[in-house]
Write a sequence for this structure.
DNA sequence: CTCTCGATGTTCT
DNA sequence: GAACATCGAGAGG
C-alpha cells in the first residue's frame, strides 16, 4: 500500500498544506471493500477566525468544532441543502483552519464512482462513455463520487477508511492560484485572497463557473 | 457555448 | 428567517 500522509503533514501552515496536497492521492475504502483513488488537482485554504470566508469566522460552534481540533481529521458539512463538502483540518490544535478539496482526477474505483452518481448526463456522454474529467470536478461532485456525507465528519485521515497518500507532489511551476470560488460575499479582502490552488494544466478542475467567478472578482 | 434559476436542509441570527 | 465554500437543467445565441 502506498505511503499515507501522516499527521505532521497537516500540522503546518494551511496555505502550505493546500498547495502541497496537489498531486497527492485521496483514497477511500468503501463498506463493500472497493478502494477509490483520485489525484488531487484543486484545493482551497480557509484560515482562522480572522478569515471572513472561513466558517470559523463565527467562532467555535458545534459545526466548526472539528476545525479547532487536531490536524488530519475530516471536516464534512452540507451546503445548499444537498451538497457535501470535504475539508482536511490543518495547523495545531486550537487553531481553526482547513483545506477544502475541490477536485480530483479519478484513477481507481471509477465504476463505483459513476454508480454513486446516477445523474448520467453529467458523468456520461451520449454514447454512454464516462466523462472522467467531470466526475469529481467540484467539491459537491467529489463527495458524491466518493460517497461521502455527514457521517464522515470527524473521520481521522490517519486511518483506514479515508486517507491521503503521498502520490507525487506537484511541481511548484505547475500550480496556479485564484480567488476562492463562491466567496464573493465575504468581507474584503477575504473575498479576493488568492487561496485557491490548482494544477494549471489539468482538465479535471472546476469548469466554467470557476473562471466566471474568478473573472468577476478580477 | 453562455446565462439564469431553482432545489433543499442545516446552521446561525 | 436568511444565508449558504453548489450543481444541473433549460433557454437562448
Amino acid at each position: 500500500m502506498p505511503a499515507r500522509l501522516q499527521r505532521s503533514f497537516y500540522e503546518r501552515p494551511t496555505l502550505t498544506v493546500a498547495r502541497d496536497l496537489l498531486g497527492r492521492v485521496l483514497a477511500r475504502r468503501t463498506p463493500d471493500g472497493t478502494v477509490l483513488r483520485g489525484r488531487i488537482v484543486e484545493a482551497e485554504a480557509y484560515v482562522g477566525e480572522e478569515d471572513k470566508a472561513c466558517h470559523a469566522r463565527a467562532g467555535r460552534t458545534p459545526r466548526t468544532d472539528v476545525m479547532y481540533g487536531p490536524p488530519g481529521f475530516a471536516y464534512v458539512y452540507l451546503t445548499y441543502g444537498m451538497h457535501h463538502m470535504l475539508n482536511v483540518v490543518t495547523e495545531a490544535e486550537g487553531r481553526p483552519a482547513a483545506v477544502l478539496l475541490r477536485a480530483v482526477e479519478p484513477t481507481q474505483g471509477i465504476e463505483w464512482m459513476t454508480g454513486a452518481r446516477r445523474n448520467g448526463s453529467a458523468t456520461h456522454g451520449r454514447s454512454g462513455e464516462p466523462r472522467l474529467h467531470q466526475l469529481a470536478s467540484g467539491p459537491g461532485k467529489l463527495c458524491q463520487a466518493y460517497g461521502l456525507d455527514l457521517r464522515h465528519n470527524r473521520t481521522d485521515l490517519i486511518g483506514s477508511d479515508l486517507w491521503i497518500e503521498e502520490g507525487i507532489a506537484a511541481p511548484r511551476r505547475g500550480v496556479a492560484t485564484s480567488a476562492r470560488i463562491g466567496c464573493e460575499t465575504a468581507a474584503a479582502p477575504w473575498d479576493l485572497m488568492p487561496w485557491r490552488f490548482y494544477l494549471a494544466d489539468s482538465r479535471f478542475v472546476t469548469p466554467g463557473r470557476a473562471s466566471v467567478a474568478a473573472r468577476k472578482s478580477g
